[in-house]
Amino acid sequence: NFLFETHDLRFASPATVSRMGMIFLSDEDMDVRRVVNKWLTTQPEEHRMSLSNWIDEFFFRALDHVKGLEFVVDTTLVGTVLNGLSQLAGVESRGAFVCGLVRGLGGNLAQAERVAFAKLVFNWANERPPDMGAPLDCFWSGHSFEAFVTERFLVSNHDTEGFDPESVVPTVSVKRTLALMEPWIAQSEPFILVGPEGCGKHMMIMHAFGQRRGTGVTTLHCNAQTTAEHVITKIAATCSLFSSPEGRVYRPRDCERLVLYLKDLNLPRPDMYNTCMLIAFLQQLLTYGGFYDENLEFLRIERIQIVASMNAATTVGRHALSTRFTANVRIGTLDYPERQELSTVYDTFLESAFKTDPDVAAERFAQPSERGRLAALMVDIYAEVRQKFPLDDARHYLFTPRDLTAWVSGLLRYDLAVEPLAEVFAYECARLFRDRLISAEAEQRFDSVATGLMRPFFKTAASLSGVMYSALADGGAKAKAGGHPKLEKISEEDYKGVVKQGMMYYEREEKDLHILLFPEVLEHIARVDRILSRPGGHMFLIGSAGVGRRTAVTLAAYMLGQQFFAPAVTRDFDEKAFSTELKAAVQCAGVDGERCVLYVEDHVFTVSAILEIINSLMSAGEVPGLYTHEELEPLLAPLKELMMEEGTHRTPYDFFVSRVKKNLHVCLSMDPRNPAFLMR
Predict the structure, then answer these.
(1) Using CA atoms, how far apart are residues 579 and 614, in angstroms rounded to an integer?
(2) Could you give the count of Cα atoms lying within 13 Å of 337 in the half-sphere of its Cβ?
(3) How confident is the model over 482-532, as pLDDT tens digits?
(4) 212 near 185, Cβ under 8 Å?
């Protein structure tokens, strides 16, 4: 007897269906009360009566209202019910129940609808939040509703000295999201955080689990080619197999509880039948608590929590998740912080950054009001750029709060006791935003916006063009010695002399470059050297053939003492051939610890999988499946002693990945006239 279970008959053959009996289970036949009653039996007996009364009073009414709204992530009725109930576990008071109901049933709604829903629930309960304009921004303290308050300090997710760009500032929206995640983390429930690019999903997940003892996080950066095999490899690398009466079981190796964090979960591409192998496998892990290995032995998993983050499915390259999977996970949505909140965050970041340079702090920005104004100026410029240069104008006009973080980090690359802050501030601003613009007219519009906002603050008109800062002012001596040289101001004439000398040495050792050093070429090389001299700096160069992109990168890399790798494309070049070419660059960066550049042009992308490999390398510092287990053992052996000396990583592989992220610079070079450009 064959028994099939499916949620969709779109791809079922009529010949098959006509030969089978069929039972249709509809959402309308679903008795939600039975689901709720089953959940109530899992709650402490002393709370059941009060929970049952509040559920009858508010829950079903709220559920009926939410069912008529549009969800951010498509899910089922039972999935919505379980999302709502997940926030009510262990609730002992009416106020806490109201807060939990708003977070649970409103978790999968867009921001505006969530606010409207929260007001409605408070109204039904005859309760009043501290601020009726922001009903989401409060919690139940035990006797009353209290508003979340922004705190001005940094919580670092890493043991680093100085400024950590991945730090968290406990703002209202951060506390709101942490309150949403708290019950899911406490109960080890699988959940997905959904939000736009750069809104802080990864940072908040790492922060939330970083606060808990005995909890380890292993991250899998998904791409279009990610499969179940990559998840199994990750589990095998971080867990050990134990024998138990029920069979063999995977348990975390170095911690009490392991979080398997899948970043960009909706990037893996579904097949022709709209099934994604990765999602189907995760659903199996959640439903059956294990998987079959290649010998058809069922291996269970214990103390492993599955957590994911993703952009909404409306974003390019993203795919809708199966409702069979989303019904089994909890869902929470995020949005970008408000402008005022961004100003607070970057005021705190600037304070931390300037502490590493006491001369600047003592000069002007020891005054919190001045620092706050500088942060507000940064946010104003960012907001204006987002408004004036929308994504509709060009696909790469994606400006996010990450750019503001990069701006703060960038300021630390200059000797601010010597260089005027107004000039450095304007130069970093131009490199982050102006360099992305596609026309001279767009650059002029940007210049007028940025200088208009900067002039009142700095009382001077800092130039956004014609200024050069370089890590090669000393001829690249510090960079070649393995240090992180500061960017120093250099005149065009002096820079021309430095580059001319570097070119002479390069041509003597390698080959003739055949370039004239006119101002535009020098500017281009200066921009390239700014990125290559920064640990983990990657570049995306857009331009027509023959404008000198490869020459500039080759010369800058040589002068900075970095090795240059460019894949040699052959007739049957595919992802396997690319992976073989890639290994040389990855080993140079990860094993030898040398800085190097991987230069990849349009013609290398013979198959889309190669672009996904590059994407994974830039975001994670690793490519799942690049090395077999047998290849990794001898590769990582020389790193064990170095890792013990540094003492900051749990495994040699983690140490290897961190070195790749720091030392390997990926440079993508594309021609916008290529028909495939928009799809990439």
Answers:
(1) 10
(2) 29
(3) 667 889 999 889 999 999 999 999 899 988 888 888 888 899 999 999 999
(4) yes
> Following CA atoms 60, 61, 63, 65 in sequence, which dihedral angle do they give, to the nearest 10 degrees?
160
In this structure, are residues 610 and 604 in contact, taking their beta carbons and an 8 Å threshold? yes
CA distance linking residue 401 with residue 381, whole number of Å: 12
CATH of domain 339-458: 1.20.920.30
* Strand order through the sheet with 290-292: 239-244, 247-252, 298-301, 290-292
Q: Look at residue 27 and give its three-state secondary structure.
A: helix
Q: How many CA atoms lie within 13 A of 632 on its CB side?
A: 17
- Two structure tokens written together for 4: 């099939």
CATH of domain 162-337: 3.40.50.300
> Is residue 267 within 8 Å of residue 224, measured between CB atoms?
yes
CA distance linking residue 654 with residue 222, whole number of Å: 17
Q: If you count them, how many residues does the chain have?
A: 680
- Angle, alpha carbons 244-247-253 (nearest 5°): 60
**54, burial (CB in 10 Å: exposed 0-12, middle 13-18, buried 19+):** buried
CA neighbor of 552 nearest in space, from 535, 532, 572:
532
Question: SS3 of 194, please?
Answer: strand
Report yes or no: 203 and 261 within 8 Å, Cβ to Cβ: no
- What is the helix, strand, coil percentage profile of the chain, to 5? 50, 10, 40
pLDDT tens readout for residues 345-388: 999 998 888 776 655 544 666 677 888 999 999 999 999 999 99
CA distance 119 to 210: 33
Domains of the chain, residue spans: 162-337, 339-458, 474-679
What does the alpha-carbon distance between residue 290 and residue 286 come to, in Å, rounded to a whole number?
8
Q: Do domains 339-458 and 474-679 have the same CATH topology?
A: no
Is residue 51 very low, low, confident or very high in pLDDT (cuts 50, 70, 90)?
very high
Taking residues 229-243, report their average pLDDT.
91
The Cα-based distances of 517 to 239, 553, 561, 644 in angstroms read 56, 14, 21, 47
Beta carbons within 10 angstroms of residue 404's beta carbon: 22
For tokens 């042009």, what's the residue? 601
Which two structure tokens, joined as six digits, stand for 58? 């508010």
Residues 540-551: what's their mean pLDDT?
85
Q: What is the pLDDT of residue 555?
A: 93
Whether 70 shows a pLDDT value over 60: the answer reads yes
Per-residue b/e over 452-463, b at no fewer than 16 CB within 10 Å?
ebbeebbeeebe
Contact (Cβ atoms closer than 8 angstroms) between residue 429 and residue 464: yes
Strand locations in 396-508, DSSP E?
Answer: 469-470, 488-489
Q: Which has more pLDDT, 78 or 152?
A: 78
Write out the two tokens for 294: 């290649």
Provide the 3-class DSSP secondary structure of residue 167: coil
pLDDT per residue over 3-46, tens digit each?
888 888 888 888 888 888 989 888 888 889 999 999 999 999 99
Quote the pTM value.
Answer: 0.89
CA-closest candidate to residue 447, choices 458, 462, 457 = 462
**Regarding the domain delimited by 474-679, which CATH topology (the fold level of the hierarchy) does it fall under?**
Rossmann fold (3.40.50)
Give residue 218's region: left, alpha or beta (phi > 0; psi -120 to 50).
beta
- 3-state SS, 214-244, equals CEEEEEEECCCCCCHHHHHHHHHHHEEEEEE
Rg (CA), the chain: 27
